[in-house]
Every structure is written in structure tokens, then in C-alpha cells.
Amino acid sequence: MAEEWDEDGLRAVRGALHRPDGTALLAALCRGPVSEVLQLAGDGVAGAAAVGLPGAAQMAATFLGALRERGFRGDEELADVLRLSVGHAVNPAPRPLVVDLEMLAMLLEGTPAASGGRLDLSTGECWPAFTDELENGFEEADDPERWLYVPTLGSRDGYQDMELFVERLGDAALSDRLRTAIRGRGAFRRFKDVLARDERAWRLFHRLSDERQLGRARTWLAKEGYRPKLPFRGGG
């Protein structure tokens, strides 16, 4: 397994999830450290394990070990999904919902001005708040059986992502510059300006941030009684 993900490897993971192709996903996950794509690929691994694809149960066990070690928000909820996929009882299990966690994370992590949005419980589609005003948008927008309101959670979690990245970064000089950048107003802009000068650090930060955002979206969804529906199978 490679020590670091390259863009081709990540595209292979995303492509396998999008198709969906469990065999291709398991092969793609050998191209980089799974600890960096647990939330991204976890539901796919669980789906592959649930249908008994060769090697999927072993990959699920690898994911479970990495989730225990990491302990980000949302990791325990994902661990429950993986345990279910290999036949371990987890009670109560949230209801499966076809939903794009990345789109949900975008609504939750938006600016306060974005005002969150809605999750269509019949399709799993995520709609930003401004689409409420579209002509054919939300005739039944107040129907709790159809729609779930998605709030904007603010910038505190995003700031903590930056702090965590700075503490974990192995480059002392860059860490010092970033630590200075995140002090006071305009922290996000200054952080990105400094990070943009180092392509590798930029990629590492966004993988960390993406994973943590997906985990927060998973946690929020679980509190509402749902979890992403697994690919590669018909019900869970």
C-alpha cells in the first residue's frame, strides 16, 4: 500500500463508489492509507462486506481498527454500520436513506448566510435554502414526512479542523506560519493563503477536512434517525 494518496488513487476510489463497483473499490483502497478515507469509503466497504465480496470482510476489519484508533466525530456511527455488515448485532440501527453525505456536509458546513437547506426523505436529495423560492420547488415544504430541515452549524468545527491539522503537521516551519495565520479575524482566509503555497500540505489538509466534515454529517444524520443506505445491496 502506498504511503500517501495521489489524485489518481482517490479518483479510483470515488469512481468505484459512484458506479458502484465493490470489487473495484476494494482494489482501489490498496492504493493509499485507508485511515485517510474511512468516512469517504466506509459505506462502500460495508456494502461490499454485506454481499460477501471476496476480501470485503477483511477490509471491514481493517476499517474498524482504523476507526477505533482515530476516533473522529462520526467514526463510531460508521463503525456500527461496518459491524452490521459483517453480521454483528447493533441496536438500535438508524433507518437507511439514500443520501449523498458530501452534499449534506456542504449544507451543514455552509456560512450562516447560506441558511442550511432541506433533505428530501423520499429521494435523499439535498437542497440549499435558496431553492425554496424556485417556482416548482417545495409545494409541501412543511411536510415532516417528506422534508428534513438541515441547519447551518457555523464555523467552529472548521476552525478546529485547522487547529488539528497544524498540530499534526510534521513540518515545524509551516506549522508555525499556519498557527500564526489562524489567530484573530480572517483566520480562514489567511490559513488558505499560507497553505496554497505548499501543494502537498494543501492536499493533506483537504483530505483531513473532508473526512471530518463527512463524519459530522454522519453524526447529524444519525441523531435524526438515519444513516446512508449501503451500495451493492437492496435494503440496508
Tell me the total number of β-strands. 5
Pattern of helices and strands: HHHHHEHEEEHHHHE
* Helical percentage: 40-55%
Radius of gyration over alpha carbons?
Answer: 19 Å
Enumerate the spans where pLDDT stays under 50 for 5 or more consecutive residues.
none
Distance between the termini: 30 Å
Q: How many strands, what sense, and barrel or not for the largest sheet?
A: 3 strands, antiparallel
Helical run tally? 10
| Proportion of residues in extended strands | 5-15%
Structural class: mainly alpha
Query: Average pLDDT across residues?
Result: 89
Q: What is the general shape?
A: globular
Spatial order of strands in the largest sheet = 3-2-4
Explain what the structure shows.
β2 (117-120) and β3 (126-128) form a beta hairpin. With 236 residues, this protein is mainly alpha-helical. The chain is globular. α6 crosses α10. The chain has helices at 7-18, 22-28, 38-50, 56-70, 75-85, 101-108, 156-168, 172-181, 187-195, 199-223; strands spanning 95-97, 117-120, 126-128, 147-150, 226-228. Strands 3-2-4 form a three-stranded antiparallel beta sheet, with helices on one face. Strands 1-5 form a two-stranded parallel sheet.
